[in-house]
């Protein structure tokens, strides 16, 4: 009878419940559980396993560069970051309202970290996420993009476009950016980070009219977080006295390993 029940559970797609059936029966008998308690426990095990698989799939599909959460962020070091605002954003109301978030500031102040941390919260909350950089998205959607490529940027509830402004965009890349922002307008959240102020986006895109059109849609429902200060990655280096020269700071900022004397 146990084998038959296990087979029926598998046929219903309850594979975890099937695998645990025999152990669950023994545990229920030892604890003298009721039939309802036994069934509830078995189904809870199946549900927990499915939730974990779903979470793991969303996390993998998000393509995050790292998994640092809000607990790893140094709010005392980052200037201009209101912890209360970020905490409120972590409650995910911005996802349900399709509100955008823009992190602005110089390199190394934690823009990407905060974006990833909010993505982790969204994934834990059951939402789909995709992380990319401006350069990668422009390259991916160049030419005639396939429907699958387009869905990658329009389908997720939260899309992160990181590193806007690190290099100028050509006409095609600017148009691609506009199309993605327009299609997601009031339907899905965009989290973006940029080292350029909004007044500089016209030069970045090489088209002031296009920049205005993008910002009009992006900022209509948007939380803007301006982060000031020096690079967090340079903090410890400066304490050691090895980041005094501009070329050294630039090398560290770009991730180049620097050894005194090189």
Write up what this structure looks like:
The structure is a single chain. This protein is α/β, with parallel strands linked by helices and 262 residues long. It has two domains: 2-62, no CATH class; 70-232, P-loop containing nucleotide triphosphate hydrolases (Rossmann fold, 3-Layer(aba) Sandwich), CATH 3.40.50. Helix content is 54%, strand content 11%. It has helices at 2-11, 15-31, 35-62, 83-89, 93-96, 111-124, 134-140, 147-154, 171-184, 201-205, 208-218, 232-239, 246-253; strands at 100-104, 129-133, 158-164, 189-194, 222-226. Strands 2-3-4-1-5 form a five-stranded parallel sheet, sandwiched between helices. Helix 1 (2-11) runs antiparallel to helix 2 (15-31), helix 2 runs antiparallel to helix 3 (35-62) and helix 9 (171-184) packs parallel to helix 11. It is elongated. Mean pLDDT is 87; it is low at 247-262.
């Amino acid at each position: 009878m146990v084998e038959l029940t296990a087979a029926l559970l598998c046929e219903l797609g309850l594979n975890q419940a099937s695998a645990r059936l025999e152990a669950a029966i023994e545990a229920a008998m030892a604890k003298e559980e009721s039939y309802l308690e036994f069934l509830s426990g078995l189904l809870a095990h199946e549900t927990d396993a499915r939730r974990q698989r779903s979470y793991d799939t969303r996390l993998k599909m998000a393509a995050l560069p790292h998994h640092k959460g809000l607990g790893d962020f140094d709010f005392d070091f980052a200037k201009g970051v209101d912890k209360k605002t970020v905490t409120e954003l972590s409650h995910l109301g911005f996802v349900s309202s399709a509100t955008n978030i823009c992190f602005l500031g110089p390199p190394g102040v934690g823009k990407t970290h905060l974006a990833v941390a909010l993505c982790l919260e969204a994934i834990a909350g059951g939402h789909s996420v995709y992380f990319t950089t401006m350069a990668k998205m422009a390259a991916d959607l160049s030419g005639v993009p396939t429907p699958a490529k387009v869905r990658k940027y329009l389908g997720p509830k939260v899309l992160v476009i990181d590193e806007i402004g690190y290099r100028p965009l050509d006409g095609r890349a600017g148009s691609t950016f506009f199309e993605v922002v327009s299609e997601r307008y009031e339907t899905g959240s965009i989290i973006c980070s940029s080292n350029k102020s909004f007044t500089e986006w016209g030069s970045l895109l090489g088209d002031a009219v296009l920049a205005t059109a993008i910002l009009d849609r992006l900022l209509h429902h948007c939380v803007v977080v301006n982060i000031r200060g020096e690079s967090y990655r340079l903090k410890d280096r400066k304490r050691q006295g090895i980041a005094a020269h501009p070329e050294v700071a630039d090398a560290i900022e770009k991730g180049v390993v620097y050894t005194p004397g090189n």
